[in-house]
Amino acid sequence: MAGSLFSMVLKQLDIATKNLNLDENIHTILKHPERELTVAIPVKMDDGHVEVFTGHRVQYSSIRGPCKGGIRYHPDVSLDEVKSLAAWMTWKCAVMNIPYGGAKGGIKCDPFKMSKDEIQRMTRRYTVMIMPILGPKRDIPAPDVNTGAETMGWIMDTISMFEGRTVLDIVTGKPIGLGGSLGRREATGRGVMLVTLETMKKLGYDISNTTVVVQGFGNVGSVAANLLHEAGCKIIGVSDVSGGFYNPKGLDLASINKHVSVSKNHLLEGYKGDAETVSNEELLLLDADVLIPAALENQITKENASKLKAKIIAEGANGPTTPEADKILRDKGVTLVPDILANAGGVVVSYFEWVQDIQAFFWDVDEVNKNLKRIMGKGFDEVWSFSKDKKVDMRTGAYMLAIDRVAKALKQRGIFP
Ligand code: NAD
Fold this sequence. Notes:
Blueprint: H1 5-20, H2 24-30, E1 35-44, E2 50-61, E3 67-74, H3 79-95, E4 102-108, H4 116-130, E5 139-143, H5 149-163, H6 184-203, E6 211-215, H7 219-231, E7 234-240, E8 243-246, H8 253-262, E9 276-278, H9 280-284, E10 290-293, E11 312-314, H10 323-332, E12 335-337, H11 339-342, H12 345-359, H13 365-390, H14 394-413
Parallel strand pairs: 3-4, 3-5, 6-7, 6-10, 10-11, 11-12
Antiparallel strand pairs: 1-2, 2-4, 7-8, 8-9
The structure holds nicotinamide-adenine-dinucleotide.
Nicotinamide-adenine-dinucleotide binds next to helix 7 and strand 7.
């Protein structure tokens, strides 16, 4: 599955460049990541034996600014996946008009089978291995699947030890006491909530009558579910890697939150509240107005797209919908808010964190959320009107807007030498 991800990236790029009538030379350049680094990461495990993990860092583009993108720990991590995610980061920063290029990193590992000490040693060694290409003005990592504030703190500390000074602006998504930004942890889910509400407003939905299903109850999915619930929507289904729960009358999110706060690996498994169990496949097909895929890529495919009942899809995850499924959904009249817009809240607040670190002046959470709302709202409006104007779906519109910005910057800079 992961092997085909970059061909999906190229297909999306082809469509956008054709619609934009873009210079073929620019198209050719944009098909290639600027830099790919693969590293071996030897780690002494707790029992004394050594495991060698494979890690990657791909800098897709620095045309519009320093490279920016998360680091993922997952057994399915591959160079193909990291490269694809790095390309999406490039388009995401461009569509939100923040001054970054795009990058991504990852280690092929199963963090659930490792101790915290092993993960820390792996993180520090990986950091040193990719350090030659990192830098606050070069490439600034952030969290992604199975990494978080603690991981970012270790990365910051490792680089600081080598530099002989504290380097706060080398990584975002750090703990608050270590130069992190208030509101960063919730930012991606908050952004998903904001674009979902904007879409509902455009389509004339009444919030209190709107039902929502969320796949993935991690950082992005749980925050999106909780904030949409607070906004008045009815959350009728949620799931994670262990399976899902469904109640057509609305789930009791407070008791679900309580359960995952103490359950093993914070999974939904074992939840005993008022809900039926459903598989992840069944969850996607539930009868709800809004579907938020917030787990991994390739979840909505040509096999299940025609059976989906949701009228709005807001992509919390990166790449959850295949191009074949996209076409089926478009033909069905589903409004799909694409990943590069819907889940951009994280990188927007990462940008705020970087700005705060550089200025050594920290904002309160209202300031963060106010600016996030402003930038997400502007990004949404631009993509919405551009897509209407060009008579294309929102994904194509978002890609066209983003790729046009990158292409213009490339033209202005010229091709070195
Ligand atoms: P996370 O690790 O906190 O959560 C991932 C969730 O998905 C977990 O609940 C996990 O159990 C679930 N999951 C994993 N495999 C699954 C499967 N096969 N079926 C159903 N559920 C499954 O990660 P996250 O940070 O919430 O990221 C989720 C998605 O959002 C990823 O695609 C990530 O790239 C994207 N994203 C994250 C951020 C961010 O700031 N964290 C920003 C932009 C995009």
